[in-house]
């Protein structure tokens, strides 16, 4: 994996003979973890990680895996390894069969030092609370899974969730979640380093609310065609919001871009 932007200093050592990597140091988990470290800010930081095909599809046949690669999964793992919480829309949980995050030996010490449990919590955003509470995501997590919902969520579903040991977080006065309130609601639980893995409908709302601080967008060198959503979905914004490019890595034709929301 090599860095395209910002440009690398000329004295970076070339890869070892016989190595199948073009740049051993960036393939290293420690180096990637350093490169993707959360900024030191006062308060929560909401980062998104998504993969898109060349023609803008966020999935192929309802799954993102056909667009992904080994390097994409590596960065996916690194971003999880750095996060306090992974925020995800209920439809992605249902379609992708989400499971609890797995502890990874490579991140154990780093997480311990940062005062983090071995894995990030998963926070599922849902209005309906129509979730399979018997599934491992809820029944066998290392840290309790959260459900983020509105104040008027269906009572019987709330009971079901609580009986399953799920922590319910309210962020919104009506039946739905107000996406702009989510980062602060999670931060009140000590979850500051936030990572959202979509899906497109949830991510579109975070962007629209001005709550998205950073986008890690992998561009896959594949064409999907069809009518799949883009990585952000929703009604057009009044004014397009600007993001600033902060880094680009490349591996096997995949571009791992990173943007920060431009602030006035
Ligand atoms: N390319 C990628 O990196 C990537 C990443 C993730 C997902 N995906 C793909 O995206 C597809 C699913 O994405 P999606 O956009 O359809 O769904 P999504 O954003 O994952 O989930 C939508 C659901 O989240 C809940 N939700 C969203 N906004 C809400 C709000 N304001 N208040 C309360 N609940 C809210 C609702 O759940 P309830 O229905 O339970 O109320 C809604 O139905 C899948 O095919 C997946 O493979 C791709």
UniProtKB/TrEMBL annotation:
<keyword id="KW-0560">Oxidoreductase</keyword>
<feature type="compositionally biased region" description="Pro residues">
    <location>
        <begin position="1"/>
        <end position="12"/>
    </location>
</feature>
<protein>
    <submittedName>
        <fullName>Diaminohydroxyphosphoribosylaminopyrimidine reductase</fullName>
    </submittedName>
</protein>
<dbReference type="InterPro" id="IPR002734">
    <property type="entry name" value="RibDG_C"/>
</dbReference>
<feature type="domain" description="Bacterial bifunctional deaminase-reductase C-terminal">
    <location>
        <begin position="44"/>
        <end position="238"/>
    </location>
</feature>
<dbReference type="GO" id="GO:0008703">
    <property type="term" value="F:5-amino-6-(5-phosphoribosylamino)uracil reductase activity"/>
</dbReference>
<comment type="pathway">
    <text>Cofactor biosynthesis; riboflavin biosynthesis.</text>
</comment>
<dbReference type="InterPro" id="IPR050765">
    <property type="entry name" value="Riboflavin_Biosynth_HTPR"/>
</dbReference>
<feature type="region of interest" description="Disordered">
    <location>
        <begin position="1"/>
        <end position="23"/>
    </location>
</feature>
<dbReference type="Pfam" id="PF01872">
    <property type="entry name" value="RibD_C"/>
</dbReference>
<dbReference type="GO" id="GO:0009231">
    <property type="term" value="P:riboflavin biosynthetic process"/>
</dbReference>
<keyword id="KW-0521">NADP</keyword>
<dbReference type="InterPro" id="IPR024072">
    <property type="entry name" value="DHFR-like_dom_sf"/>
</dbReference>
